Amino acid sequence: MSDNENDCVQCTECSRICDKGQFRTIDGKHVCLNCLYGDARPLTIYPIGIVISGRERGEKTSHASLLATDNNISEIHLYPGMSTFMKGLADETHLIIVWHLHQAKPVKTLFARGWDGKKVGPFASRTPNRLTPIAVTEVELLEVKGTTLIVRGLDTINGTPVLDIKVAIKSLKKEIPT
């Protein structure tokens, strides 16, 4: 079978012929969604906004350095329809951002983790190359301007779709009387 993404491929696990979008490439081999997920059905998720960061995929910046620098500032531009859901958001200090890994590459089952070089699989790492391209990051909320959030510590690239925002426990703890 051809490796051209426009053609069908054969699953290396069950030999089923798969159309584009019906397989994942894992360690250079094509594996059909049925072999990976069994009877699970896909979900429909809509983004609520997009990240503007000035960072692009392929930059030689590690997650460790991104998260450790004070100048790691990003903007999250929420879509106008999200303004209804923002009440109280500006009062928070830290948020959890759920985002889509929109430029993920084929998955490897074992690789050297960028943080410390330890040999791990995707579930023990922050790699953007995952079976389910969803990631979460806790960020510091610096400012809210209309439907734009200014945050520190978001390890995404420019154009990343944002799927959800949740208040972080760190933000809630500031309100708990001691």
Number of structural domains: 2
CATH superfamily of the largest domain: YaeB-like
Molecular shape: elongated
Could you describe the largest sheet, including whether it forms a barrel? Answer: 6 strands, antiparallel, barrel
CATH topology of the largest domain: Elongation Factor Tu (Ef-tu), domain 3
Question: Which spans have pLDDT < 50 for at least 5 consecutive residues?
Answer: 61-68
Topology as a string of helices (H) and strands (E): EEEEHEHEEEEEEEH
Rg, Å, rounded: 19 Å
Tell me the fraction of residues in β-strands, as a range. 25-35%
Going across the major beta sheet, what is the strand order? 5-6-11-10-7-12
Notes on the protein architecture:
With 178 residues, the protein is mainly beta. It contains 3 helices and 12 strands; from the N terminus they run ββββαβαβββββββα. It is elongated and about 55 Å long. It has helices at residues 33-37, 63-68, 169-173, and strands at 9-10, 17-18, 23-26, 29-32, 49-52, 73-78, 94-100, 111-112, 119-120, 134-145, 148-152, 161-167.
What's the gist of this structure?
With 178 residues, the chain is mainly beta. Helices cover 9% and strands 32% of the residues.
Q: Descriptors for this entry?
A:
Elongation Factor Tu (Ef-tu), domain 3; mainly beta; six-stranded antiparallel β-barrel; two-stranded antiparallel ribbon; 178 residues; Wheat Germ Agglutinin (Isolectin 2), domain 1
